[in-house]
Design brief:
By secondary structure, the protein is α+β, with helices and mostly antiparallel strands. It folds into 2 domains: 240 residues, no CATH class; 230 residues, no CATH class. A 3-stranded antiparallel sheet has the order 3-2-7, with no helix packed on it. Helix 11 packs across helix 15. The longest helix is centred in the first third of the chain and has 15 residues. The relative contact order is 0.17. The N terminus is likely disordered.
């Protein structure tokens, strides 16, 4: 049997549904496949109850796109294993653009100028280190792969209506915009500097082990244009891994919505809800899948917003050459831009955004390790029994009519439901982003998490990198995840270690 046939879909031999975990709703039937295939998909994506052995094709996290290269610091930088030769060329060009260092205008390298005027990084790779996670700044260091989002609540009925209609995600600070930029081109001052300090807090687990959690406090120094608005909230966020994004976009919307239970009708304490956003090109309402608060519907949307806010580079989807500069920042608006009319109306013309999108859509997910090892299987059972799999949904089968055939009808294992969940006071940032409240976050995919240290040389987790490893990340969970967090904390050390060993295998 061909490898692509092996990973496209297995026969419906998996065990019955785990109690308390949502199944595909009968009224959410997919339209991209036949009823026969739908029945197979429902069967194969049901959570397992057999932890004596690995599930069929469980090691192939991204289906036929899975890379089997030996783990290393480039594990998140490999192309999809099923990529065609002609697409591989575009992938490599996109990779070069992802690493490209942009420069300020005017410049002799006219195809590379347009940086800023205010910005957070000179390249995509600066934040997404080896296509992996960012990290919070060290003491005395500028934030390198962490940004601070700025937003305020609506203040008028008209603004309320804009939010309700999904015309905006929130409202930026009137002076500093939607994001704090800690860097600026020559001749212009940066907006300010984000600093973080930590308070250590001891947590005693059920068996007496003590774990120290660090609670961050953020401060912005040196604001050049006066203080923020009184109601502006600051939400620091590290860069997210960029692997498997095209496959996430290819998950059927019906399958994600089938797991939503915003009113907690089943009474399990989990009320995941979908985030709906406007597609930046079409204006149509779409399901948000990307970003810490599911604020972008497509990989292209995510890339365009990063170009605009992080780099200050205009694209056809976000054509403002001044990026996040506001009307009050007149010095910023007086700076030259990198728009070259012979190349188009934006600093990064359409081919640039197209190629970066192709690249980020086709970054592969590494194969699982040791899926049959007894300690991994035991940890997998702890993961399910503790309730982690309720939100970290193990698997999906992507749409047969995916925009890219490479992503079509693949059995994938992202370990996320891609819904918003209330994570409690401890992780609340107080910032509304579209449908997400100040306490809600999108469930983060766990595929590749076991190679974080290998790729990035550190293991900082959660939206602001406060957690220094998986144990701390789990213990910060609250709100809807409180029960699962408490179940983990109550485990004996050997069982907790088995669960962590399972996560290391992902």
């Amino acid at each position: 049997m061909k490898r692509t046939d092996l990973v496209r879909l297995v026969t419906p031999t998996l065990a019955l549904l785990v109690c308390g975990l949502p199944s595909l709703a009968a009224d959410a039937a997919r339209r991209d496949i036949s009823q026969t295939d739908l029945d197979r998909v429902r069967a194969v994506t049901r959570p397992t109850t057999d932890f004596s052995k690995a599930e069929p094709f469980e090691a192939m996290s991204a289906g036929a796109a899975t890379t089997r290269l030996a783990p290393g610091n480039t594990s998140f930088s490999q192309p999809s294993a099923n990529i065609a030769l002609e697409q591989d060329q575009d992938f490599k060009l996109g990779h070069a653009l992802f690493q490209k260092l942009w420069v300020s205008s005017p410049s002799s390298t006219q195809a590379s100028d347009g940086l800023g005027p205010l910005y957070n990084a000179r390249s995509c790779q600066t934040c997404h280190i080896n296509n992996g996670r960012g990290r919070p700044p060290r003491e005395g260091e500028d934030a390198v792969s962490m940004i601070a989002r700025l937003a305020r609540a609506p203040s008028t009925p008209e603004e309320d209506k804009l939010l309700q209609d999904h015309r905006v995600l929130n409202f930026p600070d009137v002076t500093y915009g939607a994001q704090l930029q800690n860097l600026a081109v020559p001749g212009l001052q940066a907006e300010g500097k984000l600093t973080v300090s930590y308070e250590e807090r001891a947590v005693t687990l059920g068996d007496g082990e003590i774990v120290s959690l660090r609670k961050p406090t953020y401060r912005v120094d040196g604001l050049v244009d006066g203080p923020f608005e009184a109601t502006t909230s600051i939400s620091p966020r590290i860069a997210q891994p960029t692997l498997g994004l095209g496959l996430i976009e290819a998950i059927a919307q019906e399958d994600i919505l089938a797991n939503a239970d915003p009113e907690d009708k089943n009474g399990d304490g989990i009320s995941g809800k979908p985030a709906f956003v406007r597609d930046h090109r079409s204006g149509t309402l779409s399901l948000g899948r990307f970003g810490w608060k599911a604020q972008n519907a497509t990989v292209r949307d995510q890339a365009a917003m990063a170009f605009s806010h992080d780099l200050g580079i205009s694209t056809p989807d976000a054509p403002n050459a001044y990026g996040d500069c506001t009307e009050r920042q007149t010095d910023c608006l007086a700076m030259p831009t990198g728009v070259q009319k012979r190349l188009g109306d934006t600093e990064a013309p359409s081919p640039v955004l197209d190629l970066v999108t192709v690249y980020t859509e086709n970054l592969s997910v590494p194969a699982r390790r040791n899926v049959d090892a007894p300690d991994v299987l035991r940890g997998k059972q702890m993961f399910y029994d503790s309730g982690c799999a309720t939100c970290h949904t193990p698997k999906f089968v992507t749409r047969r009519n995916a925009d890219d055939p490479l992503h079509s009808f693949q059995l994938i294992w992202p370990y996320s439901d891609f819904l918003l969940h209330d994570m409690g006071d401890g992780l609340a940032d107080g910032q509304q982003v579209g449908d997400a409240t100040g306490r809600e976050w999108r469930t983060q995919p766990l595929w590749g998490i076991g190679l974080t240290g290998t790729v990035n040389g550190n293991e900082f987790y959660l939206h602001d990198g406060r957690a220094r490893g998986p144990t701390e990340a789990i213990l910060w969970h609250g709100g809807e995840a409180q029960k699962a967090r408490d179940a983990f904390a109550a485990l004996q050390k050997s069982d907790r270690q088995a669960l962590l060993t399972f996560l290391e295998s992902l």
